[in-house]
Specification:
Layout: H1 3-37, E1 41-47, E2 55-61, E3 68-73, E4 81-84, H2 86-90, H3 92-104, E5 111-114, H4 131-135, E6 142-149, H5 156-166, E7 173-180
Parallel strand pairs: 6-7
Antiparallel strand pairs: 1-2, 2-3, 3-4, 5-6
Helix pairs in contact: 3-5
């Protein structure tokens, strides 16, 4: 019977200690982001699994509408590094408009499905980075889905030229293209 209370105390102590460490790690994330972007961030939610050496989470800030994805590589080591998708979130609307403009040159009626990439941007990108610098970042792949009416496709070259236009800055992307009744 004495083992049960002792086991509960050990579990409680481990929970408290791991919670303190987690708060310390979150503070390191806030410090990194505040130094890089010059604004205050708040914890939003965890992401993924932190058992294998990386810690992933979402944070928010007042200047952006969507949460920012942050990954701390090797967070259990003193060599940890921080990576984020702040610039991707910052240019979210402009990226979607760029895609709409590119597709609109070739198809007047279409549906675009696009989500801001979770993958971190290049470390050298920051709040002062231009849209062109961001859109030419090749560290991640943009996932783009386009649906057009079947009768709007003239030939294969039309689709290839649209894809070339989307990749005009060197952007890496995966294009899912479908012709259907809209």
């Amino acid at each position: 019977m004495r083992r049960l209370p002792l086991a509960l105390i050990v579990i409680l102590l481990l929970s408290i200690l791991s919670g303190c460490k987690n708060g310390y790690e979150q503070q390191m994330v806030y410090d990194y982001l505040e130094d890089k972007y010059g604004e205050t961030f708040e914890y939003s939610s965890p992401w993924g699994n932190s058992l294998y050496g990386d810690h992933e989470l979402f944070v928010t800030c007042d200047s952006l509408d969507s949460p920012i994805y942050v990954v701390v590589k090797d967070y259990r080591e003193n060599t940890r590094t921080f990576h984020d998708n702040y610039v991707a979130v910052m240019y979210e609307e402009q990226t979607e408009q760029f895609m709409r403009d590119c597709i609109g040159e070739f198809f007047s009626d279409f549906h675009l499905y696009y989500d801001t990439p979770f993958e971190p941007c290049e470390d050298n990108l920051n709040k002062q980075s231009t849209f062109e610098e961001y859109i030419s970042d090749q560290t991640y792949v943009m996932h783009i889905s386009v649906a057009v009416p079947i009768d709007s496709i003239k030939n294969r070259e039309q689709i290839l030229k649209m894809a070339e236009k989307l990749g005009s800055y060197g952007t890496r992307f995966r294009l899912m293209f479908s012709a259907q009744e809209i």
